[in-house]
Amino acid sequence: MLMGMSQERLGDALGLTFQQVQKYEKGTNRISASRLQQISKILAVPVEFFFEGSPGGEPNGAPGFAETGGQGYVSDFMGTAEGVALSKAFIRIKNPKVRRRVIELVAALAEDETAENAA
Fold first, then answer.
1. Cβ contact 46:87 at 8 Å
2. 14 Cβ contact partners less than 8 Å away, ≥ 6 residues apart
3. With a threshold of 0.85, does the pTM exceed it?
4. For residue 17, what pLDDT is reported?
5. CB neighbourhood size of 21 (10 A)
6. pLDDT for 3-53, tens place per residue?
């Protein structure tokens, strides 16, 4: 229910029973990469969301095909429940002026947080 969708509704969207969804969730049955991608599209989250906190992201510290230029924090954030919730709420704001004000508010709050931590 983290994403606001029951196992039954997810199963219906996938053409599966909710019992099969439970087996995926509990790890009883393995989930294929294509099925995981399908679930990520239905839930409107990046595939990385399902690996939050899992070990083995970068073996031996080697970046491999990781993005360069410091953009990893964006995908890390979008892989969290907070990132998904914030994005979904933000997208529902239709007025561009209000969206800009929300961005300005979050930036101001972040600056205040940084200043408080420095003191």
1. no
2. 21, 35, 38, 39, 42
3. no
4. 92
5. 22
6. 667 888 989 999 999 899 888 888 888 888 889 899 888 888 888 777 766
